[in-house]
Every structure is written in structure tokens, then in C-alpha cells.
């Protein structure tokens, strides 16, 4: 390997998040409006072969970890085929999936056999009625069945992504933490982010993740910090309740950003490189596929414009920002 994907701030990028679709079978309140979304026609999505070509080239420049996202990646037909293609690429060591898990249980074994190594499940409530409200129609029992299936086929670690929302699910912090006491689960609380919002309405649901540690203290749990004990933790600040089998993490992009250690690039379902989740910069790869050198140069060009920080904290404080935030919804980017 002659070159690595390093930006002008010295950050090495060995992690690619790949959105395979902008469609989803749910309409989570922080991700999509209930109606009115316009989705990309299927012919505008990158094919599995095109995605694999991009990954093959990037593996030659040090990319080792992949995450398949959406939308909901499992609404893309034959996703197992893509996982198998990616796992066969020399240099790729880790293939993870972020999913709402509604359709995962029936496909867990095939995905594992194809080469899937890890799973993150988006789960914002443990109460069936509230889960249905937040997701606008999701069935909690199907998600819980998928967690059991993931455990059964040997996916490790199993993580739960919980977007914490004031007045909506912040009274369930203790319930989520209790999941880590007996089982080797890893619960990650994520701050509400201003992605794709054209007003300040998101601020009414924003809550600092310091609330989680405060809740532990009020319950009387002894909490210890753990350093990257779970593979793939990335930007999570990680903790364990004394004696617990699992861990919990805090991902706070707004109140305490982790940009200085960012190691990821994003590839959207319609073929755009996004150097940063928050800003609007995008570079389309489609016409460069088949020309390895030109494709690599495009990724280096994207890294050259990647800012030092996403400045979401300024959005929270309504301060002037140095770049233009994206107008795309999280489902259109791939989280």
C-alpha cells in the first residue's frame, strides 16, 4: 500500500459507511417526515458491482472497516449478495450493519454466512406503544426477535443505538441501562442532531447526554470508564456499571464533538462521497468507476475539503457557521 487516506489535519480514514438505499420501512420522527419524501429511482442507486469496485480501490489505500446503512439497508433486495462480495475483497476486515431490525431475524443466518461481522440496531424505546409512536408504526416484538437471532448466529458485538429525545424517551434511560447488567449488550445513547432540518424545531427534543451519567448516580450505580473495550466503538465514550456484563456509551456530536479523531467517509446510495456527515460537500463517484487512479484521486480531493469540525454546537447556539450544512435527511445520507 503506497498511500493512505489522510486529510490535511492528519486524520487517517480507514472506515467507509455505505448507504445502499434511501428508502425505509419506518418513518422515525427524527429521520423522516411521515409523508412527502421523494426517493431515488432504483436505476440511480449504485449497483452492488459498483459499490464493490469502490471498496476494492479504497482497500488498496487502507480502508479496512465497512458499515452498511440506509435508509433501512434490509429493504434493498439480496443484501446478502453485497456482503459476500465485500467480504471477498482483500484487506476488508470488518463489515457491520446498521438496521432497524424489523426484517433481520429471518435473514440473520444468511447475512452471517455471507460475512457480516457486527450489527447495530436502532431502538429508541422498549415500550411497544411508544416504539410504534416514534417509528410511526414499527413492531417492537420483531426487533426483539432480531436481537435474539443476532445473538444466536454469533454476531458480536451487538449494539443498540438510542437517540435520546427530551420528553419522548429520556424516562427510559434506566430501562436501557438495565439491559447491560445481565447480557453482553452495548447500549449507545446518541444526541439528537440537526441533520436535514431547515428550522430549529430539533432543539426542543435535544438533551445533553450528561443526563445518563446523572441518572446512574441518582440510582446509586458505580460506573467506570472503559477504553475501547468493544470492537467498532468509534466515537463512543464508553462506560460499564460495576459488575455488568455489557457496556453503555455516549455519542455526543453536538455538546462534545469527536471530529479530531474522525476516521470515516460516507458513500451515499446515489453515489456521492460525503467527507463529513453535516456539511453539504459531495463528490459523485459514478463516472470514475472503472478508472482506479481517477477514483482514488476523487477520494483524496474529498479529503482535501473535509473541515476540521462539523460545528453542530454552533447550530445549537444559533451561531454563524463556517460552511453550509447539508439539506439532506439522515436517511438520504446514510447515518
Automatic annotation (TrEMBL):
GO molecular function terms listed in the Swiss-Prot or TrEMBL record: 4 iron, 4 sulfur cluster binding; cyclic pyranopterin monophosphate synthase activity; GTP 3',8'-cyclase activity; GTP binding; metal ion binding; S-adenosyl-L-methionine binding
Keywords annotated in UniProt: 4Fe-4S, GTP-binding, Iron, Iron-sulfur, Lyase, Metal-binding, Molybdenum cofactor biosynthesis, Nucleotide-binding, S-adenosyl-L-methionine
Residue positions binding S-adenosyl-L-methionine: 30, 71, 122, 193
Annotated residues for binding of [4Fe-4S] cluster 1: 24, 28, 31
UniProt entry tagged with the keyword Heme: no
CDD domains the UniProt entry points to: Radical_SAM, Twitch_MoaA
Subunit structure: Monomer and homodimer.
HAMAP family: MoaA_B (MF_01225_B)
Function, as annotated: Catalyzes the cyclization of GTP to (8S)-3',8-cyclo-7,8-dihydroguanosine 5'-triphosphate.
Name of this protein: GTP 3',8-cyclase
Organism: Paenibacillus elgii
Lineage: Bacteria, Bacillati, Bacillota, Bacilli, Bacillales
Gene (name only): moaA
Amino acid at each position: 500500500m503506497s498511500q493512505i487516506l489522510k486529510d490535511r489535519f492528519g486524520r487517517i480514514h480507514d472506515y467507509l459507511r455505505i448507504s445502499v438505499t434511501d428508502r425505509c420501512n419506518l418513518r422515525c420522527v427524527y429521520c423522516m417526515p411521515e409523508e412527502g419524501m421523494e426517493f431515488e429511482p432504483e436505476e440511480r442507486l449504485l449497483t452492488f458491482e459498483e459499490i464493490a469496485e469502490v471498496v476494492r480501490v479504497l482497500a488498496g489505500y487502507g480502508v479496512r472497516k465497512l458499515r452498511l446503512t440506509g435508509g433501512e439497508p434490509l429493504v434493498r433486495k439480496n443484501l446478502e449478495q453485497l456482503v459476500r462480495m465485500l467480504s471477498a475483497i482483500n484487506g476488508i476486515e470488518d463489515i457491520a450493519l446498521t438496521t432497524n431490525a424489523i426484517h433481520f431475524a429471518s435473514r440473520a443466518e444468511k447475512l452471517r454466512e455471507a460475512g457480516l461481522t457486527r450489527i447495530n440496531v436502532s431502538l429508541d424505546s422498549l415500550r411497544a406503544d411508544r416504539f410504534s409512536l416514534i417509528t410511526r408504526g414499527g413492531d417492537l416484538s420483531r426487533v426483539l426477535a432480531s436481537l435474539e437471532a443476532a445473538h444466536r448466529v454469533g454476531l458480536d458485538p451487538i449494539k443498540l443505538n438510542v437517540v435520546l429525545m427530551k420528553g419522548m424517551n429520556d424516562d427510559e434511560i434506566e430501562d436501557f441501562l438495565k439491559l447491560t447488567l445481565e447480557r453482553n449488550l452495548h447500549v449507545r445513547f446518541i444526541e439528537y442532531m440537526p441533520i436535514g432540518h431547515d428550522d430549529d424545531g430539533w432543539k426542543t427534543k435535544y438533551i445533553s447526554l450528561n443526563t445518563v451519567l446523572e441518572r446512574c448516580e441518582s440510582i446509586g450505580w458505580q460506573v467506570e470508564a472503559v477504553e475501547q473495550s468493544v470492537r467498532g466503538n468509534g466515537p463512543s465514550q464508553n462506560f460499564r456499571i460495576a459488575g455488568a456484563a455489557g457496556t453503555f456509551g455516549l455519542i455526543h456530536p453536538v455538546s462534545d464533538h469527536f471530529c479530531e479523531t474522525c476516521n470515516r467517509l460516507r458513500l451515499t446510495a446515489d453515489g456521492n462521497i460525503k467527507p463529513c456527515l453535516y456539511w453539504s460537500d459531495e463528490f459523485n463517484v459514478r463516472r470514475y468507476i472503472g478508472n482506479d487512479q481517477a477514483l482514488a484521486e476523487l477520494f483524496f480531493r474529498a479529503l482535501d475539503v473535509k473541515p476540521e469540525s462539523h460545528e453542530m454546537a454552533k447550530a445549537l447556539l444559533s451561531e454563524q457557521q463556517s460552511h453550509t450544512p447539508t439539506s439532506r435527511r439522515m436517511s438520504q445520507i446514510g447515518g
